[in-house]
Amino acid sequence: MKFSPLLNELIQALTCLPGVGNKSAQRMAFHLLERNRKGAIDLSNMLHNAMEHIHHCKRCRTFTEDELCEICRHPEREASGLLCIVESPQDVLAIEQTLSYKGQYFVLMGHLSPIDGVGPEEIGLNELETRFSAGGIDEVILATNPTVEGEATAHYIAQLCAAHNVEASRIAHGVPVGGELEYIDGNTLTHAFSGRRKL
Amino acid sequence: MKFSPLLNELIQALTCLPGVGNKSAQRMAFHLLERNRKGAIDLSNMLHNAMEHIHHCKRCRTFTEDELCEICRHPEREASGLLCIVESPQDVLAIEQTLSYKGQYFVLMGHLSPIDGVGPEEIGLNELETRFSAGGIDEVILATNPTVEGEATAHYIAQLCAAHNVEASRIAHGVPVGGELEYIDGNTLTHAFSGRRKL
Ligand SMILES: [Zn+2]
Ligand SMILES: [Zn+2]
Questions:
Q1: Number of compact structural domains in chain B
Q2: B38-58, pLDDT tens digit by residue?
Q3: Predicted ipTM?
Q4: Domain coverage including residue B140
């Protein structure tokens, strides 16, 4: 950008957003300057605010600006005795959007990955054990991703549950609702068969 | 986002970016919080800075943080006697990237559109006439878009040029280099034929 070094810097800064390359960043910068300076100032303030105030919930490790997130503060959810374990806050969001789960969560913020130096402590499993010891959890639902690492992490946590006499279950894998069999990968189909239920 | 109203507000604010819907905004917000808080703070500062300091060049109307943009301050470009007229700062950028034009620019920040109340004054044509009267411009290159409005705007400015005894030319329309004839629309092909040159 010969005509404005500052505009150049803005375009550069916008590429910190995932999926935004130089070309999209240019389009964004020009759009904001030409048509939405107020939106840009609002975004600037929100970014600052969010990065300063959003941290991890002391109890479930999801993102929140409070000490405990709204889900953890909910008495009915605590009373449910259910604890769903997921890899990321996005997973909490996806499950919440189904409106069908009314228990609590524990967010690993990752999965076990010994090769990357991510062990049980890095994904908060000592905190999880402290929580098991405190009591009040009847069942753990392992909702880690159906990947090799997610399965290994679920398996590891299932053993912790057994050691603490907490029931553990794994979410079902199978053919997505509305999916067509011919487009489903073999691994999923195998899961769908082995997880079949009597009608 | 039940667990963090502030995160919800950040996601909302990110949708002010063009091409960013709720789903992408979510992905961006989580990415920044999890992996690039420094990038988010830098972006916040750059947005603020850019919106506060970037305005229109007094001479060519493109974006700049100075009174005159770097192109307008360049003595060789002034000496060229060439003035290229474009609709937007992005067009300046596209032309600059070709490295083949070494004259000055005038940015309309739009095109004539009587139906939307955009007349000659709104696209700075009075400033352009003042510039014609000041002298020093030998040729105007009309590089507005090859749309109905862009053509009408080019035609209108060509008349102003004639009134001020300034030569005016229109950029060539035709088959893009590397384009395949069968995929080119008929209008462009017509232009390509009528604009043919002897070899
Ligand atoms: Zn929580
Ligand atoms: Zn300028």
A1: 2
A2: 999 999 999 999 999 999 999
A3: 0.84
A4: 63-170
